Amino acid sequence: MSQPLQIGLLLPTRGALLGEDPQAGIRALASTAERVEAAGWDAVWVGDSLTAKPRLDPLITLAAIASRTQRVRLGTSVLLGALYHPVLLARAAASVDLLSEGRLILAMGVGGAFNDPQRQEWAAAGVDPQRRANRLEELAQVLPQLWSGEPVTFTGKDFDLRDVTLLPRPYQEPGIPLWLTCHHHTGSGAQVRRAGRWANGIMSITDSPQQYREVWERVAAAALDAGRDPATLDRAFYMTVNLNPDEATARQEADGFIRSYYGANWWGDRWGPFGHPNAVIERARAYAEAGAGHLIVRFAAYDQASQLDRFERDVLPALRAG
Predict the structure, then answer these.
(1) Which domain holds residue 164?
(2) With CB atoms counted within 10 Å of each terminal CB, which end of the chain scores lower, N or C?
(3) Are 59 and 92 in contact (CB under 8 A)?
């Protein structure tokens, strides 16, 4: 690893609403962000869903966390970009970036339309799910233009802007980093092309380290084809773990959590690792060797606090040591 691995925590913005005391869960989000900043983590991340997996609004949540932290990066993992109009999203994201003094990373994905709750989510937002990939592609093109502070005219298949000048501008120059999801298992050339042409970074989930390396090689080639330097792109992996010395117990708990979270466990053994801290350390290092510079940790467990304790005690020091 030429650079230290950046390690971030996914905050349970859905789980905060599902407990017996939602207000206590919501308060815990900010206190957890303060804790991980003090412990030396590099970032906190929040997910996105409108109705399929209801949760706190990601950008509003990050704005609140920005007021309670000073250093950690604030990221979306991931924002369902196609749900949003670019002008409204550009303003909201720029506001968070200003409030946090330049700590926002806007990672976006196409999102799913594989079951009724997901399809109903797109319908609730008035978006044709068949258009979500193109909407994301146009967002990746137009958001940096809107953050320039200059008049923007954009004619696309899904968005049409005429002489739009937007304030506020982001704190970061020339704008907020845009990361796009790229997954080996989808086999999508469109994902790779989008990322190579317009992203500032990529994020993957459920790929093996070797698959992750292969995805990055394809994105790097697409960036070169677009006249861009691949070395300027960030690379992140989103890893779902459950820490328990008893691997069988860890797997059982993680499977139950994933099934309750998604309604099914579509990806099976692609999640993980589940079990001993050494397995998590080994896997994280494998992704770093495959090119990941950022690791986003999500705990597949109902007791998030205990998982965080174990990670900070048994995993984080080893990863910090290299």
Answers:
(1) 6-176
(2) C
(3) yes
Report whether 263 contacts 294 (CB < 8 A): no
How crowded is the C-beta side of 50, counted as CA atoms within 13 Å?
Answer: 19
Q: At 276, list the tokens.
A: 């001993």
- Residues 178, 66: Cα–Cα separation, whole Å: 19
CB 213 within 8 A of CB 242: no
Please provide the distance, in angstroms rounded to a whole number, between the alpha carbons at the two ends of the chain.
8
- Give residue-wise pLDDT tens across range 69-85: 999 999 999 999 999 99
Residue type, 185: H
**Residue 313 covered by a domain:** no
Residue 16's CB is within 10 A of a number of other CB atoms, namely 22
Residue 281's CB is within 10 A of a number of other CB atoms, namely 18
Q: Write out pLDDT tens, residues 216-235.
A: 999 999 999 999 999 999 99
Measured over all CA atoms, what is the biggest interatomic distance in the chain, rounded to whole angstroms?
A: 60
Q: Exposure pattern of 97-115 as b/e (b: 16+ CB <10 Å)?
A: bbbbeebbbbbbbbbbbee
Tokens of residue 206, six digits: 């459920």
